[in-house]
């Protein structure tokens, strides 16, 4: 076709784009190095193997993200070579399979899922004929990894891929692994399973010589190559920088007819690999997404701080509580705040009120401190002369006083069952009668209930009405105890200590590092309220400007006050101790799992089972 191909090859190999020229019979005349690099014909794999072909008994490992697409036309008949006889396997299915080639005595292991059934990845781990095998088809990052006896063979892909590793049955050593450019080399899954010889890989292995071959031998069943061939035969088609996919690779192509003396003698195809550009764009998009996510989280944290300045705590758990409080403030639903004594239930209730009805009354009723005989009259009020000792002018109840605003029914679990009935009616109708009254009073009041009890357990004991529980449990918020969010101790100290110093009437005091560590190692049965009391006591005991551990009066963390109610099943107690020991040992070794396993004298299997069981990150 050309008089001096040597000079043309030298020139085209200097090009930064792939360049392919065919004659009018479809025979490849020029195929420069860049084109070979794009389509995987130039391969510089570090792992070597000799040329050869598959033999009976060889161990075959397959990872295919779309059966029949870019695997040489793999089908159920081809899979029978490794003992997989399953007519349910369809084109496009995601498949992982391990079997012995033409050995019916060995049962294969495989997983096959429809493409719509696999969201992120398909994985399989197995021990096959004494070899540890792991296969991961990662559909998100578009990579298939086959691991055999600790050796990994990974392949990235754009759309479809058929990955394959073959181990020699006798030696258990790798004799073939799939690599980029397998379509051009004719080494698709079906080709190899059909017994076709494969080329060697690694240093000093020969490269596929494509010059003189028909273009369809190198690029099978490709629409763009068909256009390329048609132009070489005389079709008047040409284009510049159009997106095309060749052998599964996204490319930017320019197609040019080649004429001589007015006669069509072939065609030229210039190819630019855009998979790298797409990867860079994807990485940029991921970085922008992550940046936006971080900025959103920072903005959210800042907003929550501004909206709830009195709720101290920056832990993940407390930020979640603040988010719930913000959502609750944007509704008129009844809120139930649960948590141990001293966790700040009243503070959360006030914060919700301030955000929703801040200019209206906030009435805090501690149901546990008012005698049951007086609570009804305190809540609903009474008319004059309603009972002996009643005020002559009568009295407004807390519900009426809170009209337009919010009423906090603190420790609602302390209310007696008879009064719960009347409270239920008020919550349903937002109306009630005063004691001794004949006129129904309607109120517009936001109800927030709080309790340190487990109300579901109280229902089972018969102490709390189930219908009332469901009436108040519309928007539940649980505040975690301080021992579960110890990262909040430092910001709490920072906020509480100056206010305490001002209250006591002394100069500013600071907490020493040893004292802070002491606070961090304490279990805080009294939560934030106990922390505040301990800090105030320390301020009074401290003569200087620094608070040391000797100024902190903490309850001993022991079981001297062990009661019947503290008893838990032995199995649960052992599990809690085991979980705590693993977490503390991991922390001691700064997350080093090998050192942790060694310290605890645990096997790898047992250790990872415990991590999963106890959800230890």
From TrEMBL:
The Sigma-54 factor interaction domain, residue ranges: 311-540
Listed InterPro entries: AAA+_ATPase, AAA_lid_NorR, Homeodomain-like_sf, HTH_Fis, P-loop_NTPase, PAS, PAS-like_dom_sf, Sigma_54_int
Residue ranges occupied by any PAS domain in the UniProt entry: 4-41
Entry GO MF terms: ATP binding; sequence-specific DNA binding
UniProt KW keywords: ATP-binding, DNA-binding, Nucleotide-binding, Transcription, Transcription regulation
GO biological processes: regulation of DNA-templated transcription
Gene3D superfamilies from the UniProt entry: 1.10.8.60, Homeodomain-like (1.10.10.60), P-loop containing nucleotide triphosphate hydrolases (3.40.50.300)
Name recorded for this polypeptide: Transcriptional regulator with PAS, AAA-type ATPase, and DNA-binding Fis domains
